[in-house]
Design a protein that fits this description.
Length: 747
């Protein structure tokens, strides 16, 4: 038996080494590439790799300013949705100047591919046989190829806006048996015959009955793209297309990867020192986690951006946390002298299962809601988060368990290899600390509110827009050097990118905040130009134009809507799995974390602004903190069954004390990578990691010192209400009706 375990464990280690090799180098069979190397397979976003941008000018026509601005913003939202449907969830569309839209698409090297992805913008009309226009392209909400299971061929499905649905229903009711022409820039691209009245704003366009499945898919896809190309509120035309470098700086990804590798090495060393042989098995499982996540992201072409890195970091934290929870339970079982090592392994995994599943399911709820409602970077974050969570559960519950069981099966029974003395937290009282410190976060949040009212909320370029300066450098330069120079001039929030010119990537694009109405703006700009001229003598200023926000109001609105839905579904899940007081306490803890993060961003407003990176950090902490809270509540639920005669504060203090080792170890391991990214990363990475660090610390505090003690109060109030209702019910039962219809109480 020992020899079989040794062979199996050796095979597992060899397989792990092979997995790392395949991830880094790829796998080919002859001329066929089965797996691409990770550096080629990963699709990086505009912030990490760069891509292509295109400027589209809109035709104002005879519209007034208000109508044109409204339709230009609506056109931006349509383009964002169109790019998301093509898989480019991290693409950005922003207003440029007074009448243009700037579309930036990541991980695209061919500028002509932009037009193919978006579709050639054109004017679309649906016309009756008489030539009367029924509706225009702006009335279309969604168009896509869909498989018709009755005919086993693809059709073109479409959905209309609420305003157009009624008009289209009336028109199709009158035109049954007659065609409706779909006209793109004066050319009829399709003329389907109306078979019945189309009500409800949704319908289908069927194609030729003689087509094969593949032919119908190609035809439906092409027609969908043509129709969508004209489904814009405004007519726009391309004026400029060029390649652009990473918006976070060329060295950002290199520094982030370097910090991540060092951080992971420290995490593995920590697990090995603290948990010894089980820690070694967890380290091997963590290698599997990293490789599988990279392979899956590459296989599904999920774009990896700064928010995506947050999803991976959260997954690493949850993978480590799952192992920590298991090993803490394993250590508890070893205290029982009657348990063998095999018994302790089985019991440890069994006792940890509910906490791991509940914690990861609540995080997946958030991921799927963000996936459904989110747009842009929020949607991209959700994809990465979902993949990370699934793989983290697999690595902890399957790979770690198999490896640890094989190691135990070797017959190595020296306890010092499996555990070490831990600090005893039995005297720790979360309830007492909650009573002493509960006003501290309130004071912090109120102070931040006062600061924000007095000084204003410092929103970054992503939300406010700014000024876009373009230069011709005619020499090699590093974006990090330009960023440093800009910061020396007092601009804490800027974006620096290289642009493609005839000489290569020698154009310089700078986004920063300049108030056009400020009399000092010209002086500031002259000072910046002089500093650039001193560093790059051949630099030439080309243009200055207003740059709109890359994070639109729609993106923020959808992010908030997604968060509200996620919190609501989390509350329902926790209420079902635990109880309603647990769900309410968990939401209060999450609100605490979000407010504390926002407060510290306000306090540090001179160095860090609230931008899309902060939104990504906020969403990450929601997943991180809820998982932390679930582990504590799992102990509370278990101890409530075991300590039925104990008071609720005693149950909570016992539960928090028992899980405190796990809390400390998980927080330390998760912070290792994030802190290193802050210390070693580029300035743009620090804007993301700073709120993450604050949020992780706030989440650790809230899970143990807010959520758990608050449960005592909420549960006590709930039980008291139930007791009063039961007492009232008994009193009502004690009243008997008399024959004359009157009611008299019993003596």
């Amino acid at each position: 038996m020992k020899s079989k375990n040794l062979i199996a464990l050796t095979a597992a280690v060899v397989l792990t080494v092979a997995l790392v090799f395949v991830t880094l180098s790829g796998l080919s069979f002859g001329d066929t590439t089965l797996v691409k190397p990770v550096n080629e397979a990963l699709s990086l976003g505009l912030d990490l790799r760069g891509g292509v941008y295109t400027v589209f000018r809109a035709d104002r026509g005879d519209m007034d300013e208000a109508e044109f601005s409204s339709k230009l913003a609506a056109t931006r939202d349509v383009l964002i949705n169109r790019l998301s449907s093509q898989g480019y969830t991290e693409a950005s569309v922003s207003l440029q100047g007074e009448d243009a839209l700037r579309v930036e698409i990541p991980d695209v090297t061919d500028p002509s591919a932009v037009v193919k992805l978006i579709g050639t913008p054109a004017h679309l009309e649906f016309k009756e046989p008489s030539g009367r226009v029924i509706m225009e392209g702006k009335d279309l909400v969604r168009v896509s190829p869909t498989l018709d299971t009755t005919t086993n061929r693809y059709v073109v499905s479409f959905k209309l806006s609420d305003e157009a649905a009624a008009a289209f229903a009336n028109a199709t009711g009158r035109l049954v048996g007659r065609p409706i022409s779909i006209v793109l820039d004066g050319t009829v691209i399709s003329a389907p015959t109306v078979s019945q009245r189309i009500s409800g704003g949704q319908g289908q366009i069927t194609l030729g009955s003689a087509m094969t499945l593949a032919e119908s898919f190609e035809e439906a896809t092409n027609l969908s793209m043509l129709i969508m190309s004209g489904a814009l509120p405004l007519d726009i035309h391309e004026t400029e297309t060029r390649a652009i470098s990473a918006t976070l700086g060329e060295d950002a990804i290199v520094k982030a990867v370097r910090a991540g590798i060092i951080g992971m090495a420290l995490v593995m060393l920590f697990m090995l020192v603290i948990y010894r042989l089980p820690g070694l098995m967890a380290d091997i499982a963590l290698v599997w986690y990293i490789c599988l996540v990279m392979l899956l992201l590459g296989a599904f072409r999920i774009q990896l951006t700064l928010p995506g890195l947050a999803g991976i970091l959260l997954g690493i934290g949850m993978a480590v946390d799952a192992n920590v929870v298991i090993f803490e339970r394993f250590r508890d079982e070893l205290k029982n002298s009657e348990n063998t090592l095999s018994d302790a392994v089985r019991a440890g995994f069994k006792n940890a299962l509910s906490a791991i599943l509940d914690g990861n399911i609540t995080t997946l709820i958030a991921a799927f809601v963000l996936m459904f409602f989110g747009t842009g970077s929020v949607k991209g974050f959700s994809y990465t988060l979902a993949v990370s969570v699934f793989v983290s559960v697999f690595s902890a519950l399957v790979i770690s368990r198999v490896l640890l069981s094989l190691a135990v099966g070797l017959g190595v029974d020296k306890l010092s290899l499996y555990t070490r003395p831990y600090r005893n937290f039995s005297g720790f009282s979360a309830v007492a600390l909650y009573k002493k410190l509960r006003l501290v976060p309130v004071v912090i949040i109120l102070a931040a509110l006062i600061v924000s009212v007095a000084g204003g909320l410092r929103l970054g370029l992503d939300f406010t827009g700014g000024t876009m300066l373009e230069y011709e450098v005619n020499d090699t330069f590093e974006t990090a050097d330009v960023t440093s120079l800009i910061r020396q001039k007092g601009f804490t929030d800027s974006q620096v990118s290289k642009l493609q010119t005839e000489q290569g990537m020698t154009g310089l694009l700078i986004r920063l905040k300049l108030d056009e109405n400020d009399s000092t703006t010209e002086t500031i700009l002259d000072g910046l130009n002089a500093a650039l001229k001193e560093k790059y003598p051949d630099i030439a200023f080309k243009s200055m134009e207003h740059a709109g926000a890359t994070s639109s109001a729609t993106l923020v609105k959808n992010a908030l809507k997604s968060l509200a839905w996620a919190l609501g579904l989390m509350l329902i899940y926790i209420a079902i799995r635990f109880d309603l007081p647990s769900g309410l306490a968990a939401l209060v803890a999450l609100a605490h974390d979000a407010l504390i993060m926002s407060a510290f961003m306000i306090f540090m407003g001179h160095w860090y602004q609230i931008n899309s990176s902060f939104i990504a950090a906020l969403l990450t902490i929601v997943g991180y903190s809820i998982n932390d809270t679930i582990v504590v509540f799992d102990r509370v639920r278990e101890n409530a069954r075991l300590m039925q005669d104990a008071d609720k504060p005693v149950i909570v203090d016992t539960s928090v004390s028992q899980s405190l080792s796990r809390t400390v170890n998980t927080t330390v391991t998760t912070l290792m990578t994030v802190v290193l990214m802050y210390l070693l990363g580029a300035a743009s990475i620090r804007e993301f990691t700073f709120p993450l660090i604050v949020g992780m610390l706030a989440g650790t505090v809230s899970s143990n010192l807010i959520a758990a003690p608050l449960w005592v109060r909420l549960k006590t109030n709930s039980d008291n209400r139930k007791a009063r209702r039961a007492e009232k019910y008994k009193e009502d039962e004690a009243i008997e009706p008399e024959g004359d219809g009157s009611h008299n109480a019993k003596a």
